[in-house]
Write a structure and sequence with these properties.
The chain is mostly beta strands and about 325 residues long. It is about 5% helix and about 30% strand. It has 2 helices and 18 strands. Strands 2, 7, 8, 9, 12, 13, 14, 16, 17 and 18 form a 10-stranded mixed beta sheet that branches. Strands 1-4 form a two-stranded antiparallel ribbon. Strands 3-15 form a two-stranded antiparallel sheet. A hairpin with a 5-residue loop joins strand 10 and strand 11.
C-alpha cells in the first residue's frame, strides 16, 4: 500500500511537477545458481500484506494534496504520525491498503501501480542476471485484503533485442515472478515510508531475493536505456573525468528534454529492504567486517559517483560519520 503525509510546519501543497523520486516495489527476484532448491519448496507469496505508508513532507507551491490518493480503508489513527527523527507531525497524503480483492495491475489497469510483463534484463559483466520473467498475472489482491505476488516454476521463451549486436535473440527463463511499480504515476520528494510485508519462502533456502525499494523517476527499473549512466547518480558538479559516465552532467552546456543546462541529474536508489535467503551453515564471510552470514537483509542508499578518497576499504564499513564529516 502507499500513503503520504505532509509536515505541519510547512505549507501542505503538491506541485504538478513532482518528478524527483518514485517508488518501485519489487518482490521475488529469482537469482543464484541453486535453481534446484526452488523445486523442493513452495515459494508462493501467500498473504503478502504490503501496507506502504509514504509520510511525505512537502514544501512546494502547487495544489493541495488530494484525498483521492488516500485509500478509504486506511484507519483514521493512521492519518497522522510523528517522526522518530525530528519529532515533527506528518499528515498522510497517499495510501493503498490493497483491501479490494482481485485487483489487476496490467499496464493501464490501475491509477497508482503498474505490474511488468518483461524480463529483468539485469545481466552484468560478471555474467549474472535474474533467472525469471516478470508477468503481471503473478500479482493480484486476495479476499483477505493482501497484495499477493507469486513466483512459480514455469518456462518462458521470448525474442530479446541485443542493443550491442542490434539483433533479436531467443531467450528462455524457467521461472516467473512479479514486479509492481508506481513509476511516473505517483512521485514524492521525501518523507517517511512504512511497509508491512511478509517475505516469501524459507529464510534458509536460497534463490529468492524479495525487495521493496525506491528509485528516482528519471530512470525506470529494468528499462536499461533509462538507467544506464543515470542510475544511481546524484551529482551536480562539473567534473570532466566523470562527464562521460553521467548522461545528465553539470558539464553539459545543453541538456535535452527540457532539463536545465549545466545541471547534473540522476536516479538514486534507496533500498528499504532486500532480503538474501540461504544457509551458510554457520560460516561467516571472512572478507566482511563486521562479518555477515546467510540469511541477511540490507538497507542501502545507492548514489554515484564514488569518491575514492572517502570510500571504505572493500568489505569494510565506513568509519563513523566519515561521509558526513567529509561533506561527501
Amino acid at each position: 500500500g502507499a500513503s503520504i503525509l505532509s509536515d505541519n510546519s510547512r505549507e501542505k501543497t503538491l506541485t504538478n511537477s513532482m518528478k524527483e523520486l518514485s517508488n518501485g516495489v519489487e518482490s521475488c527476484i529469482l537469482r543464484g545458481k541453486k535453481q534446484e532448491s526452488l523445486h523442493h519448496h513452495s515459494f508462493s507469496m501467500k498473504q503478502i500484506h504490503q501496507l506502504i505508508a509514504l509520510f511525505v513532507a512537502f514544501s512546494c507551491n502547487g495544489i493541495f494534496a488530494s484525498a483521492g490518493w488516500i485509500d478509504s480503508h486506511t484507519p483514521e489513527d493512521k492519518l497522522k504520525t510523528k517522526s522518530l527523527v525530528d519529532g515533527l507531525e506528518y499528515e498522510l497524503v497517499m495510501s493503498d491498503e490493497f483491501s479490494v480483492p482481485n485487483r489487476t495491475f496490467n499496464d493501464g489497469h490501475d491509477s497508482t501501480w503498474t505490474s511488468l510483463d518483461k524480463p529483468d534484463a539485469d545481466a552484468n559483466s560478471a555474467g549474472g542476471g535474474s533467472l525469471h520473467f516478470y508477468n503481471s498475472s503473478q500479482i493480484t489482491t486476495t479476499e483477505e485484503g493482501y497484495l499477493k505476488i507469486t513466483p512459480i516454476t514455469e518456462d518462458k521463451v521470448w525474442n530479446q533485442y541485443d542493443p550491442v549486436l542490434k539483433q533479436y535473440n531467443k531467450s528462455k527463463t524457467h521461472f516467473k515472478s512479479g514486479m509492481l511499480q508506481s513509476w511516473n504515476k505517483f512521485c514524492f520528494t521525501g518523507g517517511i515510508v512504512e511497509v508491512d510485508v511478509i517475505l516469501p519462502g524459507s529464510p534458509t533456502v536460497g534463490g529468492l531475493w524479495p525487495a521493496i525499494w525506491l528509485m528516482g523517476n528519471l530512470g525506470r527499473a529494468t528499462y536499461l536505456a533509462s538507467t544506464n549512466n543515470v542510475w544511481p547518480w546524484s551529482y551536480n558538479v562539473c567534473d570532466r573525468d566523470l562527464q562521460g559516465a553521467q548522461v545528465i552532467s553539470a558539464c553539459n552546456v545543453q541538456n535535452h528534454f527540457g532539463l536545465h543546462p549545466s545541471q547534473g541529474r540522476g536516479a538514486t536508489e534507496i533500498d528499504i529492504i532486500e532480503a538474501m535467503a540461504g544457509d551458510a551453515k554457520g560460516q561467516y564471510y571472512p572478507e566482511t567486517d563486521p562479518p555477515i552470514i546467510l540469511p541477511y537483509a540490507d538497507l542501502t542508499l545507492q548514489v554515484a559517483p564514488g569518491i575514492k578518497k572517502y570510500r571504505p576499504t572493500p568489505g569494510y564499513q565506513p568509519r563513523p560519520r566519515e561521509y558526513l564529516e567529509s561533506g561527501n
